[in-house]
Amino acid sequence: MGKKLLSLSITIFLLSVIIYTIYTNLKESTNKSVEVREEDLLQEFVDIPMDDTTITYQMIEEPVVHDHEEHAHGEGNLPSEVRTLNSEAPDFKLQTLTGETVKLSNFKGKKVFINFWATWCPPCVDEMPEIENFYKHHSEKNNVVVLSINSTDLETNKASIEKFVQDFHLTFPVLLDEEGAASYAYQVLTIPTSIIINEEGNLVEQIIGPVTEEMLIDKLSS
User: Fold this and answer.
1) Has this prediction a pTM greater than 0.70?
2) Coil vs helix vs strand at 160
3) Quick one: which H or E segment has residue 42?
4) Shared domain check, 170 and 101
5) In terms of residue numbers, what domain contains 133?
6) Are residues 87 and 176 in the same domain?
7) What keywords would UniProt list here (predicted)?
8) How many angstroms separate the CA atoms of 159 and 176, rounded?
9) What is the DSSP pairing of strand 202-208 with strand 81-88?
10) For 178, which DSSP code?
């Protein structure tokens, strides 16, 4: 009886050792697998490309959108684009800030320089003193009419236009395009845009971007 109990005890002990060994091996194998997977994930994260484009994109703020529909102000420091034209200038009739009515066709026999602008446009601000200087010192002797057309349909209020004119001491006529009809007729999509019309009332050039006094002297001098 004693020998049977001893044999049974030894058998149970051996089975316990075998079970424990199997359990330990399985546990170690599982841990190694988890560690390897963690290393793989870490390596995948490290290998994610983070080039300059991605970083720049993340730092870009939401653009400021003006409710200006088809019009857009020009970018500073960019050269103006000059397009040659050869067709009859569309006639228009607009009011000035002082309430006077100006009709383009009344100026046949004179060269006409038309400038489309808005108070919120930085390049327009830059070019205004240049246009004013040309108007004061060169327009009369060169038989040139200067008409400044404000894109009033894109302005917040007329008071801002009046303040702009006063701040820059503008003396040439400022016309109000309240419905955007003149801008549409002359296909003005970018501000500032200027138009040169010859003595016969025909379009000569369209200048997209700011102008300078020197440019106007070169293009409008007799």
Assistant:
1) no
2) helix
3) helix 2-46
4) yes
5) 72-220
6) yes
7) Cytochrome c-type biogenesis, Membrane, Transmembrane, Transmembrane helix
8) 12
9) antiparallel
10) S
